[in-house]
Amino acid sequence: MRTRPLKVALLGCGTVGSEVARIMTTQRDDLAQRIGAPVELAGVAVRRPGRPRPGIAPELLTTDAEELAARPDIDVVIEVIGGIEPSRTLILKAFEAGASVVTANKALLAADGATLHAAAAKAGADLYYEAAVAGAIPLIRPMRESLAGDKVNRVLGIMNGTTNFILDRMDSTGAGFQEALDEATALGYAEADPTADIEGFDAAAKAAILAGIAFHTRVTADEVYREGITEVSAADIAGAKKMGCVVKLLAICERSADGESVTARVHPAMIPRSHPLGGVREAYNAVFVEADAAGRLMFYGPGAGGAPTASAVLGDLVAVCRNLVNGGRGPGESAYTELPVSPMGSVTTRYYVSLDVEDRAGVLAQVATVFAEHGVSVDTVNQRGHDGEASLVVVTHRATDAALSATVEALRRLTSVRGVASLMRVE
Amino acid sequence: MRTRPLKVALLGCGTVGSEVARIMTTQRDDLAQRIGAPVELAGVAVRRPGRPRPGIAPELLTTDAEELAARPDIDVVIEVIGGIEPSRTLILKAFEAGASVVTANKALLAADGATLHAAAAKAGADLYYEAAVAGAIPLIRPMRESLAGDKVNRVLGIMNGTTNFILDRMDSTGAGFQEALDEATALGYAEADPTADIEGFDAAAKAAILAGIAFHTRVTADEVYREGITEVSAADIAGAKKMGCVVKLLAICERSADGESVTARVHPAMIPRSHPLGGVREAYNAVFVEADAAGRLMFYGPGAGGAPTASAVLGDLVAVCRNLVNGGRGPGESAYTELPVSPMGSVTTRYYVSLDVEDRAGVLAQVATVFAEHGVSVDTVNQRGHDGEASLVVVTHRATDAALSATVEALRRLTSVRGVASLMRVE
Ligand SMILES: NC(=O)c1ccc[n+]([C@@H]2O[C@H](COP(=O)([O-])OP(=O)(O)OC[C@H]3O[C@@H](n4cnc5c(N)ncnc54)[C@H](OP(=O)(O)O)[C@@H]3O)[C@@H](O)[C@H]2O)c1
Ligand SMILES: NC(=O)c1ccc[n+]([C@@H]2O[C@H](COP(=O)([O-])OP(=O)(O)OC[C@H]3O[C@@H](n4cnc5c(N)ncnc54)[C@H](OP(=O)(O)O)[C@@H]3O)[C@@H](O)[C@H]2O)c1
């Protein structure tokens, strides 16, 4: 065992950072055994140094994150501030100073991962980010390393705990979106400003990161098609229920059939209740990975929270420290395929369309003609009439998203169609 | 990219080895990109060189595995022969010659992993074995690396596909054990000699490997308590059904409550049908890992088969080759806690006991007294009488396995007890 301790700078000491600091203390001896050298917290950067920070020696605290990140004696910088700036500048400073970096920052990685990877490569340092996707669930490492000899074709999952909690409540209690969001906020599952979660930005960042790793290409958050859950209504949930389905916010990354491009998207979708993802309750996450040789793998666990996310950060810390002690480097960016990201219109999906129509002969034929004219083939139709009004529920076969949305536009223009009551993709 | 290829020796070219060779060919360019150097199959050792081996150049074949393993130009040896010998000798020869080793050999690792790890450490070489547990499911790497900063308390899962297939058939068709085994054999899910699977040896080897990694101590297969599924009857399955349960062959590794010892065991158990493991059908595997900070994680996928297992071998091959190209080493054996393995008697579990008893007053009191005398508290009792005979189904609370088995012995000695119709642990 080497005796000189490895020095760690912690940037940020909030939900995740405070747990990282706690575990570094409580697990100190185990970490030393597993790394082959002691690790020591050498500084903690925060915004408000006056707040109580139980377990953190006050002399470690600083508000000058930049000075700490660039300190020449620091071996590893852990960035758990979040957001694009100042996090990016801090990480680049750390690499310039020769440190390795562990981060949980999905927003930054999805916006500008290439810059970070390039800086790590130039510095000959490590960049690890297991905590950026699905909290404690090991997913980045299995995909970057365990599946490195396989060909991944699809990644599909529930990657945001807040929205899953909300949709689960809507499903189990019949509540509307706003009511379920209020409950999530009260219970601490949603932040004061829930935009990143409910509008799908958080899941889209994760989808970008996973698509890049899965297909060995570069995907940024703005290339991910994104729809949040704010438009999901109690009627959508009830419609799903009638079909034996639940509504989930899915993130889906796929290699195209010809292998020449990839797609990444985040949107609510109906899935069968019997599907393993259908049973994912509350704020849990679950991700399927489909690969040529491995087949279908599923990873499940708590996707967020201070302690679970810190567990992932600590695993990365051990890996980075082991590399510093033994030599060697973790895998860098792998983007050699340079596959382009196709737009949403080219994705093939299925649609569930619930229409309010006039209850008279010929309407079904009109509606069916619109589907046919757009080359969309219909899987099932259910019609129910009452008092001159009828509702018509159509589930399509797979077609391009472009054809499906053109179909819905055309349906809206039919005079016999009073309105589109519910519209959702089906996976 | 380095241009001199890394040379790989493949020992064994059966179910797994032939898939490894196939993927090394079809994925040649991707593997080179991911490793940073080309990899080349330099030799393939088999027992019967005359068999057709599609896709393998005949000049690569040899029956002299020992010569191949020790060849000085070989960088990595992949051992997929299986069994203790000659595999152990071959792996040790490979390390002596300075090669790194990837193996899928759970039997050898569980019997004598310490010798292999010591040889790897002495040679300064890598030993990777993701494929040894749960086929394609990344489990060894997440536990050795992703959870390296956490404290694992429990690993529980279905780790043998053959027995899960058999139990699933018994559950869904009402078939007896032998009938379900015959079907598994006919469909290729069970080997000609199914002993290793149905007697629990295979799962016990995996439990030993996982317990060692989870608790950073050394556990061998003979320290794992083991019961197979040959005694599981249609009556057991029916009894489980009545309670809303299914019978699964579980492997369970636990840290004791005081943290001073560990246990590892493999036995059939009833679990609620609604438990995520209750829904694992056919030959799939699923493993729960519970850790202090991470919480409860689940990993699910195909636990065996040529291609899935080869996927895991290839992931290890990429890791080992990357280490050779960049310097560095994978994690070695971590057994610093030296926690002892406690015997089964000290494990606390729950029992399901179905008794055939005389249908007369006082019998229930007699039975209840036996439980009480052994300090075993009863959770539920169900009695049903018919024609002077009655059946009594008791489910206990948690007690030590020793107390529970002493209770059952005492029940068998009661004259009012005609027999024990079914006896199973409940998890
Ligand atoms: N929370 C989760 O469940 C979770 C899960 C996965 C990933 N993540 C990621 O982990 C990262 C951190 O999340 P979090 O939930 O821990 O955030 P948080 O609770 O808001 O904590 C942020 C921390 O950064 C500090 N900080 C902010 N601006 C700073 C600046 N300019 N200089 C120095 N310190 C600054 C804050 O200081 P003060 O304490 O003084 O305010 C606070 O300690 C984010 O990238 C997030 O996406 C979080
Ligand atoms: N099959 C699975 O699904 C699976 C899953 C996980 C792990 N594993 C593990 O993977 C390993 C291989 O399993 P497998 O199913 O591929 O076995 P297998 O089909 O029986 O293949 C064994 C191979 O080893 C060769 N061989 C046997 N003795 C040899 C010797 N003395 N010298 C040279 N070659 C010899 C055989 O040669 P011939 O071809 O000439 O007979 C055959 O090619 C085992 O450790 C097993 O536990 C298997």
From TrEMBL, chains A, B:
Signal peptide: none annotated. InterPro entries: ACT-like_dom_sf (IPR045865), ACT_dom (IPR002912), Asp/hSer_DH_NAD-bd (IPR005106), HDH (IPR016204), HDH_cat (IPR001342), HDH_CS (IPR019811), NAD(P)-bd_dom_sf (IPR036291). It is an enzyme of class 1 (oxidoreductase). Pfam families: ACT (PF01842), Homoserine_dh (PF00742), NAD_binding_3 (PF03447). It comes from Mangrovactinospora gilvigrisea. This is Homoserine dehydrogenase. The keyword Methyltransferase does not apply. The active site is at K206 (proton donor). Residues 352-425 form the ACT domain.
